[in-house]
Design goal:
alpha+beta, Archaeosine Trna-guanine Transglycosylase, Chain: A, domain 4, 5 strands, 112 residues
């Protein structure tokens, strides 16, 4: 199955370069349909740039805090394991939605 997601320029470029291999999302209705082996096409917002990726693994968590405690920060696109803060995700998602749905760490591999 193929899924479509949009990304801002910076995370798009990090996936394109291979530095970001974990995408963090809510475990909402749309993301509940994702399975290992599926394809995700990421589109950079306000452009026609597309990256095709394959889902390698999916890990579900109750909160961004628990996800950030369990996953590699560098694989999520941060410069080091000591950088990045789970509260960054509240820029995109509400705490209410986090509590309602839970969150996902989707490990991906860029396809060439």
């Amino acid at each position: 199955m193929t899924h479509f997601m949009k990304l801002n320029k910076q995370p798009f470029m990090l996936i394109d370069s291979g530095k970001k291999t974990i995408e963090v999302r809510l475990y909402d209705r749309k993301r509940a349909k994702i399975s290992v082996g599926d394809t995700i096409l990421f589109t950079q917002i306000n452009t026609e740039n597309i990256i095709e990726t394959k889902v390698l693994s999916i890990n579900r968590y109750d909160s961004f805090l628990s996800l950030y405690n369990a996953q590699s920060h560098t694989k999520m696109g941060y410069e080091s394991e000591n950088s990045g803060d789970y509260t960054d995700m509240y820029e995109y998602y509400s705490k209410e939605d986090e509590n309602l749905y839970g969150v996902l760490a989707i490990e991906i591999k860029k396809l060439y």
